[in-house]
Structures are given as structure tokens and as C-alpha cells.
Amino acid sequence: MATHEVVDPPVPPVPEPPRRRGLMLLLLVANSAMMAVYMGVGSVLLPTHIAAIAPDDKVAVLGLIGGVSAVFATACNPIAGALSDRSGRRNPWILGGALASLAGLALLGSVTTALLVGIAWCLVQATMNVYQAAVTAIVPDRIPAARRGTASALVGLGLPLGGTIGVLVAAQTAEHLRTGYLLFGALVAAAALLLTGWCKDVPRTGPAAERPAVPVRARLAAFLSSLAHHDFRWAFIGRALMVLGYFSVVGYQLYVLDDHIALPAGLTPPAAMAVLTPVSMTAMALSTLLGGLLSDRWDRRKVFVGVSAALAGVVMVIPVISPTWAGMLVFSALNGLAFGCFMAVDTALVTLVLPRAEDAARDMGVLNVANAGPQIVAPFVASAVVTAFGGYTPLFLVGGALSLIGALAILPIRSVR
């Protein structure tokens, strides 16, 4: 059977965006607030909430809620990105998503059944992905290509900074869930107000602004048309596998510490997470900065992305060999180093393989499915592995295998060194 390779249309030249004073710092704040919600709520408050409601079935219930909410997260991100492209504005979507997330988190703190927790978490994931799609699109919109490695490194610091803040706040409020949820909602709303108040939208001009209305069916088909682009498709696959491997373990870390690791006397799982997270995030911050800056200086992306993904896979064996507090400390540090470098440089790589500059938010929204989808699906995958194989050792092995395959997925990318 004859095969025909899809030939991508030439991308028209797009003027370099003007430099905006303070934009990178505000992007760091916006991404830090987002990651504080994902890590603080998703890794501590939500598992604690579910364990209180269904202590005997916490693994299965967390997995089910995570799997169902994945549908909302993965659907809302590219749809919001495409609508943001069509409107030519980012700020209304950033602010609207943040305020809606505040309402969803307030609802989450007031419910006491597994069903209502699941519904509220779906709402939070949907609205946070509206926020995320618009924030992510600001990098290709407003940052010159020559500075995207540095910008991606600063944006990537949102995970170590926001994750650390999120877990520390969550550990302190784990016994006061409603207060904790409201604090996270207020944090993301404040970040959105800062970003949208300081950096006004600039009307978009050119092909994207002049395109006529597209039928809904064609628009939905276009969401995934970017995956026909060879390099973008492989970047998507590598990101999805790496994120799934990482969050399959990290998302269940509270239960791992409770049921698998021998903790020192008197150290509770939430308190242990408050120690492990700064260790991991400090390492992540260091590798994020160094990876982004060195990849710009050497004009190399693939080697940083591939090596860091492979390292993330290898270190998953540490808690298998040594299921101790010391082993978890070493694992957290090395895993943070690997994941930080990967996310910083891979973000820069992705902005260089976007199929069409005028569809940046839509295509970054599709790419963000590889971020948001695995993060929410990960609890479902983890619960299936733990239930099927009877323990957390197989979970670490599966997470490591996914990261190693993600490293291999970077190799076919042709247009970026």
C-alpha cells in the first residue's frame, strides 16, 4: 500500500514581539500559582480529603476521580486555547479561569461525599486549564524566539516554587481543608489579577486576526491537526510519557509515604512531604535554570531533554531498592534535577516546533493536553497498578519505564538540534 507523507505548509514570517518589562517575572508568578494548586491540592489536600471520606477505598476512589476529571482537563485546555486565539486576547481567559477556579475550590471545601468531591474537582480542573491555556500561550505570543530558553526556564521555575509553596501550605492546612482550598483559590486569583492588570492585551494582527469564522466541526478537527506535524507529534508523545511517569508516583506520594516507606518515629506523611518537596523543588529549580540557560547558549535542546528524561526513569528504582526515609530523600533530589531540566528545555523545544505561529495558543493548548491529561490520569493509572500488582514497588517501575520511553520519543524530532 502506498503511503503519502504529510507536507507541512510553509510558516509565514511573523514579526518579533516587543519586549515587555516585568513580563517574565509575572509569568513566573502566574505559573507558580498554578502549580501550587496542582501540587498542594492534588498531592495533599485532595488525597487527605478522600482518605477521610473513604479510608478503606482511598486508592480506588482517588484513581476514579482522577480518571473522570481527566476528560474535563484535556478537553478544556485546547478548546480554551483555540477560543483565545479566535478572540485575539489572553487576559479575559486568564482572569475568568482563575476566578472560576476560586469558586470551584470553595465548593470543593464544602462537600463531604466522594461524588461531590469528584464533581467539584472536575470543575476546578476544567477552569484551571482555561487559565493554563492562556498563560502558556503568552510565551510564543510575547517573548522573542532568542529569549525563549531563558523564558521557559523562568516559567519552569513555577513548578519548584509553586510546588514547594503549595505542599507547605497544604501540609499546614491538611486538618482544615476548607481553609486550605480557599487559600489556593485566592492565590491563583491574585496571580491572575497581577498578570492581567500589569500586562495589557495587545490586539493581534495578521492572518490570525483576519481569518473568517470556521464551522464548529472544522474547528474541532483543527484542534488535533497539529499532531499531523511530525516534530510536534513526537514532542507531544515525549512530554506525555514523561509527565505521566512523573506524576504517577508524585501524585500518590502521600499514600506511598503512609503505606510503603518506613518513616522515622513521629514523622507523619504530610510532614514528610513538607520536607521532601523543598528538597525536590530546590534541585528542580537549579536544573531548570541551568538547563534553560545552557540550552540557549549551546543552541541544543534534544540532548538536554533526552538525558533528563532518561535520568528520571533510572532514579525510580531507588525507592524499590531502599524503601526508607533516606532513600526517599535521595530519590526526591535526583528526580527533581531530572524533571526540572526536562520541563525547562522541552518547553523551549516545543515553541520551536509549533506548526503555525498564528495558531500558537491552539497548538500549545493541544500540547498542554500532554501536561494536564497525564497529571490527572496518573492517579487512575497508579491505582490500577497498585491494585493489580499489590503494592507500590510496581508503581515505581512503571513510572520509570514511561520516562525512559519518553526519552526515546525525542530522538525522531528533526528540525531542532
Characterize this entry briefly.
This protein has helices at 23-53, 58-87, 91-108, 114-142, 148-156, 158-173, 177-198, 207-210, 216-223, 230-250, 253-259, 269-298, 302-314, 318-321, 325-352, 360-389, 393-408.
Description of the structure:
With about 425 residues, the chain is an all-alpha fold. The protein has one domain: Growth Hormone, Chain: A. Helix content is about 75%, strand content about 0%. The protein is built from 17 helices and no strands. Helix 1 runs parallel beside helix 6, helix 4 runs antiparallel to helix 16 and helix 13 packs antiparallel against helix 17. The longest helix has about 30 residues. It starts with about 20 loop residues before the first helix and ends in a 9-residue tail after the last helix. The N terminus is likely disordered.
Q: What class do helices, strands and sheet pairing give?
A: mainly alpha
Count of distinct strands: 0
- What proportion of the residues form beta strands (DSSP E)? under 5%
In the CATH hierarchy, what is the architecture at level 2? Answer: Up-down Bundle
Global shape: globular
Major beta sheet, specifics? none
Q: What is the helix content?
A: over 70%
Alpha carbon gyration radius: 20 Å
Unreliable segments of 5+ consecutive residues:
1-14, 206-211
How many independent structural domains? Answer: 1
Distance N to C terminus = 33 Å
The CATH topology turns out to be Growth Hormone, Chain: A
- SS field, number of helical segments: 17
Q: CATH superfamily name? A: MFS general substrate transporter like domains
Q: What is the N-to-C order of secondary-structure elements (H for helix, E for strand)?
A: HHHHHHHHHHHHHHHHH
CATH C-level class? Mainly Alpha
Q: Please tell me the overall pLDDT.
A: 81
